[in-house]
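Q: Sequence in, structure out?
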Amino acid sequence: MTMHKRAVSVLLGSALLVGCAATPDYEPQQEANERYLDSLSFGVQSTDATTAEWWKSYEDDQLNQLVEVAKAANLDLLATRQRVRQALADLGADEKRLLPQGGVTGEYEAIDRNSVQESSAVGLAGTWEVDLFGRLRALIDAGEANLEVALNNQRAVLKEVTVGVVRAYLEWEAARQRVQLIKADIRALEDTREVMALRVEEGISPNLDLARADTLLEQQRAKLPDARAQLYRAKAVLSVLVNEDSESLVLKPASGALAASFGVPAAGRANEAMQLRADIGGALAALARDVAVGNALRAELYPQFSVEGFLGLTNVAEVSDGFEGTGSIAPRISWSLLSYPVILQRVESQNAVSEESYIRYRQTIIDAVASARVAIFAYGRALEADQATGRAFEAANESFTIARTMHREGAIGYLDLLDANRTFISAQQDRLSARLSYAAAQLGVIEEFSGVWSSEAHRRMLKATGGES
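A: Exactly. Output:
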């Protein structure tokens, strides 16, 4: 049974438990939320990329390796394994409550009634709680839901780490290209400045031309420290994600990464991708857990039935000749009637906790839908900007080429050439920024519609680590 279906089954089961305390029934709201998500329409471009390994669409072996390293070594992801391990252990303990409990016991008793009467016993004593009203079953439901919370949290971290690696990699490549671009512009401007200095010295060109050349040159030099800082920051972020020191992390240029363009994995299942998001699944599991805890509390309003037994050896002085084999079994019933006021208040408190969980679950859905629509809108605008800056770059390149030819022929002055050069440099940098924005927007849509691909990637990870659920 999938995590989503198990959480829903707990909510349905809560509607069957009736008694003195009111039982919250979230089944109608849950069905309404699912209908709402099913009714949504998203204009998302699909892709033929492997759903669980969409990053391979970048066709970059270095990126593929970084993602695999992060999935194996990221500390946040490793920490989630321990939380899942804890939840599994807690669930196992809850399930064992259905079995008889007890152990080896030994006792000695001496009673003075005119004469001392001694007795002793040693053996196995146990108690088995008969779960007639579902208290233990509700605790198991709560444990299963808590495990789902941990698994969804793990899947959310897996998504964040995967997307984070790709995003940091693209930012690093964009920063690297920006540094190279600025350096190339500086070298070209330095060469131009040397020529202009000679022309001024010979009296061919005015000092104004040299001053303008110096201005543009220093403007580009001023951009270099910030570009290098961006490059360093992107590499530092990437090194944290793959759990490696940034000084030892060696990266090769990846010029083609920013130019990659593909759709969203499993975009044809956009509604399913929304329903299967880790944050929505985690919020639903948290609601199921709180409802199950409430069910366990409500079961305490009913009588508790148990069977107690003993199997061992007893010796009663002056009655028996020594230790004799003894066995006993006895039913027991207890009913906390005097504790009703306390239990009812605890139930009411847990009802409030469950209601808060439902509100948070509903808010998670609203936030997810809103952020998905924003991501789609941003993607469309980034695509427009990318296309526009591409056209602007081509025009600026052509303009600068014509200006250089006309300047060599003496048809225009140096200031006109300098203006064309400034426009070309600006168009280059705008083009690079737009490429990064487009890549980031594309990644943002993949991140928002992560339910299908993250579920598949999570299943593969659990299978690889021996923790398949």
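The chain has a mean pLDDT of 88.
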